[in-house]
Specification:
Chain lengths: 296, 338
């Protein structure tokens, strides 16, 4: 009897795992996921290889070539108002944006998974209290919550990451909870429980790995969102501080040149757009593949 | 139906109470002393202490919280440190500009979004579908403030078609009656037959409304497409088609009506997003609304104003969501019956 139950448990669990693996293979045929993946890898390579990709320094100024237009000199995308090479600043900026995206999603994921798991697994009054709190947090618009947290902590890049990470926690907790609620009803969980698996084993070893798919999609989307939010915070003067080559800050400091130097305004924005687009495309592809309804 | 509405309303009070509590403690526990901010760097310790006493900041936190709660219930959000004016009055003064901008952004995003979504769904896998969905994806990936600057660069600076900011031509001596300039424009038009105010108000609205509406447009187009595609696959549509009913009627009368349900939810959620997103758009276009006002309050560390502003926007957000939920239950019996 016991071995039979164990077999069911293993079978159901491994079926889910292979479903996930299969999904990854399917990604190869998903055009939007491939394009998104290529864009992201491009920006990651750019971030790592920055010093070898450009002969200039991101913060070295040469006022004799201020506001040099693009495509005419060795400064391919031109220079800014202080004579800094724009392409170099954008290349180095990719480091900052990717780090912000990853760390803030890391913060939201860690807390979101923990809260969602506890709430979904235990149910009852724990779930009711947690969900009420999450509903209240979600009642404050996300952009506003981020701005306020960072304004209160003081404007800096690190605080921007914390603010973005913290204000996204409720969304992750919700996604994790929903997926845990669906997963814990499965037979293999009942089987494992009857075999004496502890609550923490069930939560972290059985339920979490099997409910990871929607969390994965959310996290991919989240990196793009975090990059957008950090650009917005820097634009408002609440994120990165000069002379950091953060894209949002570059757009903010270009505001006064809308009449005279279009490239200073345009290119950093294109960089943000492309990176976020990469993550959104990948997330779209992942959703198509991981959502069983789409598969049917 | 009434039971459902009552149930939703009963959840409203704890949510509002929770929002006020979170915002109060977030601001009260943040580093920095409002009294010092108010008096500036040169103030002596004694005068700061005196002001702290006057503001009630020397009282224990739970007493401050109780007093704040009592005031908020009476719709008193305190006084702005910067202007000395009541926060509720400042909100009242700046609200019409934001509401006007949000309404036009909403009209733009919903009409164009639904149109593009229907176009994509009915021509699935065509170039039109591919183009508008790619456009929608680019739309959600774009920083709004950058788009606003690019608009200014192209349409204001290069082509000189629209103004770079503000709500009205500064040469017009004009006192607003309602706070809503387009409405004021209509009133002036009917009173004196002069269309100048109306045209100028609309002229100033075009770029900010399009910039603010871009992300909601993209989201609406995507949800319309997927929702309509799902409905178009259902049997009753196939039956309608096989009965020889014209395709346009099938799509616009039979399918779209049912596809509208998720669209209503998304559009409703966007109202809150628009209010919050206005902070960026209003800053770029020097639009004198709640967003720009709140931004300056944050910059000046004007605690009562920030506190009041966030509570106000969040409560509006909650109420709109509630309204959407009720509306949703009216059109979808499945929800209220469950």
């Amino acid at each position: 009897m016991n071995t039979e139950i164990k077999e069911i448990a293993i079978e159901e669990g491994s079926e889910k795992n292979s479903l996930f693996r299969e999904a990854f293979f399917q990604l190869k045929d998903n055009k939007s996921a491939i394009i998104g993946f290529i864009i992201i890898v491009g920006f990651i390579l750019m971030a790592f290889l920055a010093p070898w990709l450009t002969p200039f320094e991101p913060n070295s100024q040469d006022i004799s070539i201020r506001k040099a237009p693009p495509f005419v000199s060795s400064h391919i995308l031109g220079t800014d108002d202080l004579g800094r090479d724009l392409l170099t600043r954008i290349i180095y900026g990719s480091r900052i944006s990717l780090v912000i995206g990853t760390i803030s999603v890391g913060i939201s994921l860690t807390f979101g998974i923990f809260i969602g798991l506890i709430s979904g697994f235990y149910g009852g009054w724990v779930d009711r209290i947690v969900m009420r709190f999450i509903d209240i947090m979600l009642a404050i618009p996300y952009v506003l919550l981020t701005i306020v947290i960072v304004a209160l902590l003081g404007p800096s890049l690190v605080n921007a990451m914390i603010a973005i990470g913290v204000s996204q926690i409720p969304q992750y907790a919700r996604v994790v909870r929903a997926s845990v609620l669906a997963e814990k009803e499965n037979d293999y969980i009942t089987a494992e429980r009857s075999l004496g698996a502890s609550n923490s084993e069930l939560m972290f070893k059985s339920i979490l790995p099997n409910s990871i798919a929607p969390i994965f999609v959310q996290a991919t989307l989240g990196v793009g969102n975090a990059i957008l939010s950090s650009a917005a915070l820097s634009f408002l003067g609440l994120g990165a501080q000069p002379p950091t080559s953060e894209w949002g800050l570059m757009i903010a400091s270009s505001r006064e040149f809308v009449t005279s130097a279009w490239w200073i305004v345009t290119f950093p924005g294109v960089a943000v757009l492309l990176t976020v687009l990469g993550f959104n495309l990948l997330a779209d592809g992942l959703r198509d593949v991981l959502d069983p309804r789409m598969k049917d | 139906m009434l039971k459902y509405i009552l149930k939703r309303l009963s959840l409203l009070i704890p949510t509002l109470f929770g929002v006020i509590t979170i915002v109060f403690f977030m601001i009260a526990l943040s580093p920095g002393d409002p009294a010092r901010v108010m008096l500036g760097e040169r103030a002596t310790a004694a005068s700061i202490e005196k002001l702290r006493h006057e503001l009630g900041l020397d009282k224990p936190l739970y007493v401050q919280y109780g007093l704040y709660l009592k005031r908020v219930v009476k719709l008193d959000l305190g006084k702005s440190i910067k202007s000395g004016q009541k926060v509720s009055e400042e909100i009242r003064d700046h609200l019409p500009a934001t509401v006007e901008l949000a309404i036009w952004a909403m009209i733009f995003s919903t009409s164009v979004g639904i149109f593009l979504g229907v176009l994509s769904a009915t021509r699935k896998n065509s170039w039109i579908d591919f183009g508008s969905m790619a456009g929608a994806l680019v739309g959600v990936s774009m920083p709004v403030f950058w788009l606003a600057l690019v608009f200014i660069m192209i349409f204001s600076v290069k082509l000189d078609l629209f103004p770079t900011g503000g709500r009205m031509n500064i040469r017009y001596y004009f006192t607003s009656i309602s706070g809503f300039y387009v409405l004021d424009g209509f009133i002036t038009l009917f009173k004196s037959g002069d269309p100048k105010v109306l045209l100028s108000a609309l002229h100033h609205l075009v770029l900010p409304a399009i910039a603010l509406g871009t992300i909601p447009l993209a989201i609406t187009a995507r949800i319309t497409r997927s929702s309509l595609l799902e409905v178009l696959n259902q049997d009753y549509i196939k039956t309608a088609r096989s009965a020889g009913i014209k395709e346009k009627r099938v799509i616009y009368i039979y399918a779209l009506k049912n596809a509208l349900l998720p669209i209503i939810t998304v559009v409703g959620l966007q109202v809150g997003m628009l209010m919050a997103g206005a902070i960026l758009t209003e800053t770029v276009f020097s639009w004198p609304g709640i967003g720009k006002w709140l931004y300056h309050a944050i910059e000046a560390r004007d605690y009562p104003a920030v506190q009041g502003g966030i509570i106000f926007i969040s409560i509006t957000f909650v109420l709109i969501n509630l309204l959407v939920d009720i509306l949703y239950s009216v059109v979808n019996p499945k929800i209220r019956l469950s």
